[in-house]
Structures are given as structure tokens and as C-alpha cells.
Amino acid sequence: MDATSLESLEMALQASPGNSALRLVVVRGWLSLGLGERAGRVAADAAPDLALDEAGQRDFARALSAVEKWQAALGYLSGAEAETLIERSRVLLALDRRTDAAESYRLAVQKNPTLEDEKLAALLRSREPEAVKARPGAPRLRVVANDDTDKSAVSKLVQAEAPRLAFKDVGGLSEVKSEIHRRIVLPFQKPSLFERFRKRAGGGVLLYGPPGCGKTLLARATAGECTATFMAVAISDILDMYIGESERKLHAIFEEARRKPPAVLFFDELEALAGKRKASRDGVAAKIVSQFLSEMDGFAQNNKGVLILGATNVPWEIDAAFRRPGRFDRVLFVPPPDREARASIIDILLRDRPVAEVDREGLANATSGFSGADLENVVETAADFAIEESIRLGQEMPIRQEHVQKALASVRPTTSEWLSSARNFARYANEGGQYDEVLAFLKKHGKA
Fold it and tell me: Residue 156 above 60 pLDDT?
């Protein structure tokens, strides 16, 4: 509708000001043309008992907001629909009623997540600094600032602590979890009993297997089961360009763990710190390996109550000295999940998401060879399709089987390449039976 037609309708309103349907048409017409002030004037002239449905009341509120008649706009926003609550939040914010505005926004998004408005949310989160006025004659305060804070220290300070996990949060891997519980968790839980048998808590455990199969998750769950301090060591925390600094940092990390027993030190991508020394082209890497070995089982070290967990995708690259008893003497293979494990992982991944009509058993059967990370990719991709549909339709749509099927068509398993490499080492470099578990897995699944 053009402006000329709307002006004619406005003239008709003067003859019948109580015609609510006509007034609503004019208000919506001016709003559609982006002329909020004209719409606001028409809405402001309405009788207070005008008969409007909830959608019409919202349009009147928008028109009145355009001319900053916030209190009048609020009077039209008493409905309970999500769209009304969002509009009410905007008006309450303009009236500086932040708490009420935030609650209205929360209820709106809870009812219809597609109405989430990041700009409005940012305004609700912001806080005006309160002006501080000095009393006459009061002493002036001297502000001291220190701008020398190290950036790495700041990044660690602001890093949120990861939630504590337990074995129930890890899908499948029942045999591996049982072995970890027997050999690792129980010594932490029953230290007196183990001391009677001269068995100590702590030591070293090496987890290996294809990428994405839960080694890091198992490490965190192990720490949770032990109720121990969990310290995940990043490679960047250790390696340094200056000679001797990497060894010093490694020693400092071990010392920190010794001060806080029971503690779990977790080294992911262990081959970067514990690679074979004969393969090193310089002496720097060899010195780091020697320092690591000394920290684990050196003459002057006491690692009682400290468990060292390592994870690697390439156990054949680890220096053989780490496999000596007293170091990584417990080596556990973390295989790709079987069908039951995949079903368990899928249940965990779909937990607390809006889901309808998903064949979970069929999905578990259709994902042979998928790692846990691959399954997570399938579920995340299906969720993306559901979110896209929700935004397109303007209402929350749960994850359905059609979303899962589309996700399966675009995600491929990532364990095949690792299994091919592991097969060669298990066949031709299996000194002392260190890869017997890999051979057993390959034979069981017909891939040997």
C-alpha cells in the first residue's frame, strides 16, 4: 500500500475514530513503509479500549515505540506469546527496567529460540558505570595500575575450568574402563589397602589408538573417578626456543603435581615430548626426552600420588625407554567403538537436545568404523540442519531422522587410515607382544 492510499484511509479514520480494524490497517501500512512516526501518531490517537488481537497489540506497541511513548507501548504488551515478550523486553529496557527486561527476554527465547536477538541480549548484559562523586573536602584516591601482566598468565586465568567427568560420561569402552578402574582408580580410592601390599598409587599409563576415539575423554574421566587434581599439559606449555627452558618447564609442571597429590598429569600428543631419541636430528629433543624420563622415575623424584597419563595416535614413535616398568608400564589400546558403544555414544550426544523420530539403533548399525568424534560430527551436522529449518520456519524444530540421514551422507569415518598403519606395525614390529590388542581387534573385525 502506498502513502497516498494511507493518507486517504487516515482521512476516513477522522470520520470513524472507533474503527479498530481500519486504524490497525493504517498503522501497519505506515510501519511497512518504514514511517514509524506516522504510525505512532495514528496509534496514539486510538481510544484506550480499542479491540485488538495480540498481533495487533504488538504492532501498536511498535508504532508507539517509534515516537518514544514507552509507557503507552507497554500497555499493549500484556500477552504471553514469545513475540510479545521480545517486544516487551525492548520497551522495558527503554524504560530502564533492566531486570524485568532480561526476564521477559529469557522467557521469550525459552518459548521460541529462533527469536534470539544478540544485539538486544548485549544491551541487556551491559551495565552503565555508576558515577562516583567525591564529597567536598574528601581525600583524593590514588589509582595504581600494573600493565606488566604476562599475556600467557592472563589467558590461563580467564580460562574456564572444564566440568568434572566420570566413566558414565564416556560411551562404550567398558573393557578399557574396567582395566583403568582396577589398575588406576582403586589405588587412589583405597591407598591403605594397596600400601599393605606395597602397591603405590600413581605411575604411568599410556593410552593409544585412532584419533577421536576417546583417549582425552578417558583421561579426564579417570581424574574424575579418582577425585584428583587434573592437569592437562599442552605441548606449547613445554616447548621453548631457548636452550634448557623446555626442560625447566617440564620440571616445574611435575613439581606442581607433586605438591597437590592426588594429581593426574595428562600429556596429549605424547610423541612430541617422548619421541625416539635416535630419530632426533639434534640434541634438544633428546634432552627433553631424558628430562621426561628423569621426572617420571628419576633418582631424586618422589611421584607418590601422581599419575602420569599419556595419549598418542602413534605409539610406535614413542622412545622405548618409556615402556620400562615404573614409567609407562601400563599401555591400554583405545579401539574404535563397536555397535553397542556407538549406541551408547549416540545416546550421550543426543542427551538434552530437542529430538524426535530418530532411529538410534539404526544409526548405530549404519556407522561401523566411525570414531566417537565422527559420531559427534554426525549429530552436530544433524543439529545444524534442524537449526536451519527452525530459523526458516520461525519455530523450534527438533532433530529428526531426515536430518540424521542428510548428516550421514556428508560425514565419513576417519579411522581407516590409522588402522592400515597399525596393521603393519602389529604384524611386523610387534616386539614383546606390545600390539597384541591391535591384532586381536583387527582379527575380530576381519581387517587383519
Answer: no
Length of the chain: 448
Minimal CA–CA distance to 253: which of 226, 223, 233?
233
The strand pairing partners of 311, in sequence order, are: 207
> How far apart (Å, rounded) are the C-alpha atoms in residues 106 and 109?
5
What DSSP string runs through 79-146? Answer: --SHHHHHHHHHHHHHTT-HHHHHHHHHHHHHH-GGG--HHHHHHHH--PPPP-PPPTTPPPPPP---
Which stretch of 154-168, 259-273, 317-331 has the lowest confidence by average pLDDT?
154-168
**Lateral strand order in the sheet of 229-233:** 229-233, 263-267, 306-312, 203-208, 330-333
Distance (Å, rounded) from C-alpha 32 to C-alpha 373? Answer: 48
Q: Which of 250, 273, 265, 252 is nearest to 202 (CA)?
A: 265
Rounded mean pLDDT of 374-403? 91
Residue 123 has pLDDT above 80, yes or no: yes
Phi, psi of 282 (to 5 degrees): -135, 175
CB 42 within 8 A of CB 30: yes
Q: Structure pTM?
A: 0.62
Sorted by where each starts, the structural domains of the chain and their CATH numbers stand as 3-125 (1.25.40.10), 167-171+178-333 (3.40.50.300), 339-410 (1.10.8.60)
pLDDT tens digits for range 167-192: 887 877 788 888 888 877 777 777 77
Residue type at 293 in one-letter notation = L
